Structures are given as C-alpha cells and as structure tokens.
C-alpha cells in the first residue's frame, strides 16, 4: 500500500492543507514520500499518483475508471438516465466515431473555428474586454464541436456553450458531509435533482432534445425520400442513428440527447479549460509571443487555396506544442482527474492499490 502522509488534526486530516495550499503541499508530500502516497481528505483516504507513474493509470482503462468518479461527483445519473454514465460505451464511441474520423473532420473544424473566431473576436482593431475567459472560449469552441456532433445553428451553439458551465455548480460545493460518511455529500446533492426541485441543465437539455428530434426526423424523412441519392451527414448524431439498437420507427430522442451530453461536456469543458490556461500563460510571458507567431507564419505557408492546413502540418508546430504542454503541466488543477480502481493493481514500483480505491 502507498504510504499515508502523517497528519496532526484527527477527523480533518490533510483537508485544509489540500484545500488552501494544494500545489506546494503535494510537492512537499512527493518529495518526502515518493511519487505515490495517500492523504486523508474529506473523511476518506485518497491516493495520489505522480508523473512517473501517471501513464500507468491513463493507459490501463481495464484497471482504472474516470467516469465512475465523475458520475459520483456530478449528479448526472439523476439528470441523464439513458447513458451519460456508461463509460464503456463512451470509450467505444470516442474510438469509433471520433478518433478514426479526425482526418475527415479536420477541414470542417478549421473552417468552423475560423468563422467562430471572426464572430466573437474579429480583427480587434479596438481593444475588447471579456470578463470571464472560460465562458468566452466555450462559445468560440462550441461552434466546431457542434459542427462534428450535430450541425451548427445559433441555438445549438449557445446550448453547447452553456451546457458545461451549468453543471459546475456541483463542483463548487465542498463535500463537508463526507466527514460524516463517505459519499454523503454526493447523495444529498442528488436529492433536489431527483425530486425535480433543481436541475441546472434542464433548459439546455430541453433545447438539445428539440434540436435532435428535428434533425433525426429530417434525416429519416430525406433518406426515405431520396433513397440512393441521399447524402449521408458525417457527424456524431448520424453515427448514433445508425447503431443497431436505434429504432427508426420509434426514436428515443432522450437517450440520444443523454449520450450526446457526455461528449459535449467532455470536449467543450476540457478544451475551454486548457485554452484558458494557455492564453493566460501566454499573456503573462510576452517574451514567447514573437517566436510562436513566427512559427505559425511558417506553418501557414502549407495552407491550401481555402486557407486549410493538412492534418500533417499540426505535427510541425513544435514550439506551440511545447508551450501548451508546459502550460497544462503547470496549471493549478494538478489533482483533479480522480479515478477508481476496478481491480487490485500493482504499480511498476511494487506499490499496490486495492479494488474500489479512489485516487
């Protein structure tokens, strides 16, 4: 078992140090106890895995699961009952419906992102002020995401952008009730949702279902009408429609919306958050701007007549890639990707983690 860091305050454990000085506290723990250690936080013992062994966690989805912990933290099982929390299905869908089609989507995403930037940022001939960078970037990023998921429209782009922000109120609630019993806070958070008293995503989900219904009905109708001459839409929604369990005579719009919700949440939140960190780091380090700009000018020479870069060109952005990686490495959310062990696991250094352990 990983060593448990010593603490002085019974019942509270390391909670205050983790809450108010997380970065320096974890750095000191790693220095004294090694790359893998355990802390007593919010009434539970949680294990932390450092950079030397983190790749083992990320590479072994048969032993570690991120989705289960996310479902516990957010009451998405109460809000989305038809598939949002099915981690095995989500992994399959990412591989088959998105990863294998990246080359197909690259041109569309570039075009959509360019239009989105022009719309929300423009030429910036005059200074512009955005009070909340994360929410602003969510709007910019929502357009290309919507393009490959379901198709663009003003209504659906707004729905995509607002969807992730609406759920994060639950992350803002400190799990103080877990001191009484582990998991009690998550249970209490679900009560108003299950009783129908409060659902922060209700409006966005309603809009998503409405748009999905219109699109599904339109596609089924046109496919029947045009037969072989029908042009198949290349997006995530069409992949959902063509699954074996889909019934064209009785479409389950709610189920499709719930599955779509996971991908909206995962893609827009992670991309917007990462972009926020990178832009703030770039603004605070102006000495790198010119060098990165010159690299972009050089890469831009490979664009075609429509201004589209081939997918191979992205691999040549070495300086930008290094800057982004370093920004993400240094960001404050260094312990936010919790996993649950699906089975007993032994790390390469010999330390063992038991089944059903959160870290």
Automatic annotation (TrEMBL):
Its cofactor is heme. Keywords: Iron, Metal-binding, Monooxygenase, Oxidoreductase. It holds the Pfam family p450. The keyword Transmembrane does not apply. GO terms for molecular function: heme binding; iron ion binding; monooxygenase activity; oxidoreductase activity, acting on paired donors, with incorporation or reduction of molecular oxygen. Belongs to the cytochrome P450 family. This is 18230_t:CDS:1. It comes from Funneliformis geosporum.
